[in-house]
Design brief:
By secondary structure, the chain is mainly α. Helix content is 73%, strand content 0%.
Length: 210
């Protein structure tokens, strides 16, 4: 999902199409949330069956229960993780490199170790320590939205709220007998853009040489 956001958003950012930039950010994050929710639901439903796989190697029931608890709690962070990763893709698309790296460090290192250490000081550490992951992801999302807002104001807000249509180019490939030239002519007429066929393009190049 992040790679898709990078590909589509960077193209529209290069085109300076404000409307499509906003749509890419909006739907990119929303779609990632939907996928993350599906993954979270899947792990919540399969937490116990997956944990029982440890029993195949001779693990005790206590170990299986701990694993099941870990999956139930840690998988809650997947939703927040999806949002952070989507925002990383947005930031990369508009030309930032350090800010996505900061988000990655927040969710993987900076928040994780102090929170995990705090839980190791509690009595019920085998249960509470797994909350490190959803808490870290949630905190990262909060910071990510702050970074996204700042980056949006710096790079996207200055773009005029107009799409560039005078650079629209539609190339129509055709086979003999398909009447492709006439179809192209009609498309150009409907879209109110210039029509160029082989002959006209050749004449334009000759005039440029003169």
């Amino acid at each position: 999902m992040s790679n898709t956001i990078i590909s589509i958003l960077s193209f529209n950012y290069g085109m300076k199409d404000r409307k499509r930039i906003d749509e890419c950010i909006k739907f990119g994050i929303i779609d990632t949330i939907i996928v993350s929710l599906m993954i979270t639901l899947l792990f919540e439903l399969l937490a116990h069956p997956l944990s029982q796989l440890f029993g195949l190697s001779g693990s005790t029931q206590e170990m299986i229960d701990i694993c099941s608890t870990a999956l139930h709690i840690a998988s809650l962070g997947f939703v927040f993780m999806g949002i952070s990763v989507a925002i990383q893709g947005v930031l990369q698309s508009i030309g930032y490199a350090i800010r996505p790296l900061i988000i990655a460090l927040l969710r993987l290192v900076i928040f994780v170790f102090p929170i995990a250490y705090f839980f190791t000081l509690t009595e019920n550490v085998t249960t509470l320590v797994w909350w490190t992951f959803p808490i870290s992801e949630l905190l990262t999302v909060i910071v990510s939205f702050i970074i996204l807002k700042k980056s949006y104001n710096e790079r996207i807000s200055p773009i005029k709220n107009e799409s560039i249509t005078n650079n629209l180019v539609i190339a129509i490939s055709r086979e003999h007998g398909t009447n492709g030239k006439e179809i192209a002519r009609q498309v150009a007429k409907e879209l109110n853009i210039e029509f160029y066929d082989k002959e006209r393009s050749k004449n334009l190049l000759l005039n440029m040489d003169l």
